[in-house]
Amino acid sequence: MTEYNIDELSFWHYGDTKEEANKVVEEILMGRRTAFISDFSYLSDYDPYEIRQYTNEELQSLISEYRDMYPRKGDLNVITDWDGNPKVVIRTLGFGLMHFEDVPLDLASCEYGDMKIEDWRRRKEEEILEHSLREYLDPREVLQIELFEVLEKL
C-alpha cells in the first residue's frame, strides 16, 4: 500500500465540463481508464509549424524544458469530481508527447478501453475540434501532438 500525506497532493479534475469531469473520475474508479491523452495545443516559445516536423524523440526532449509544469513518474495526485470532491488518488507511471498519428493502440486503449485505433482517432479529432471551438482556436492551428499520462489508481 502506498503511503502519502493527502495535504501535500495536488487536487484537480479532468475536463472542461461537469459531465466530462464526473465521467472520467468514474472511469478511473471502475478501472476502465488508465491514461489521459489530450491535444497539446502549443509550446509558447516555439513555432507551431516547426514543431510539427519534430520526431517523437525531439518532442520528448522539448517537454524536459517544461518539467515543472507537468507530472513526473511517481507523482501522486487526487482526482476530484467537478465540484472538487476528492474521489481517487492516482500515481503517474509515464508522461510524454507524441504525434497524434503515432499513438499506439495499447496506449489509446488505456484511455477509452478496447476499440479500434481508427475509432479512437475519430473520437480524439472530434474532441480537438470541440476544444478548439470552445477556446476560440482555429482547429488548423492546434498541433496534432498528444500529451499523455499513464496512471494507476491507488
Describe this structure in words.
The longest helix is centred in the last third of the chain and has 18 residues, at 117-134. The protein is 33% helix and 23% strand. It starts with 9 loop residues before the first strand and ends with a strand. Strands 1-3-4-5-2 form a 5-stranded mixed β-sheet. The model has no long low-confidence stretch (mean pLDDT 85). The radius of gyration is 16 Å and the shape is globular. It is built from 5 helices and 5 strands; from the N terminus they run βαβααββααβ.
List the helices and strands and how they pair.
Elements: E1 10-12, H1 18-29, E2 35-39, H2 48-51, H3 56-64, E3 76-80, E4 86-99, H4 105-112, H5 117-134, E5 145-153
Parallel strand pairs: 1-3
Antiparallel strand pairs: 2-5, 3-4, 4-5
Keywords:
single chain; 154 residues; alpha+beta; Sulfate adenylyltransferase; 5-stranded mixed beta sheet; 5 helices; globular
Distance between the termini: 8 Å
Count of the separate structural domains: 1
* CATH architecture annotation name: Roll
H-E order: EHEHHEEHHE
**Helix tally?**
5
The portion of residues forming beta strands comes to 15-25%
Q: Which structural class is indicated by helix and strand composition?
A: alpha+beta
Q: What multimeric state do the chains show?
A: single chain
Low-confidence stretches: none
Shape: globular
In CATH, the topology is named Sulfate adenylyltransferase
| Strand element count | 5
Measured on Cα atoms, how large is the radius of gyration? 16 Å
Can you list the strand order of the major beta sheet? 1-3-4-5-2
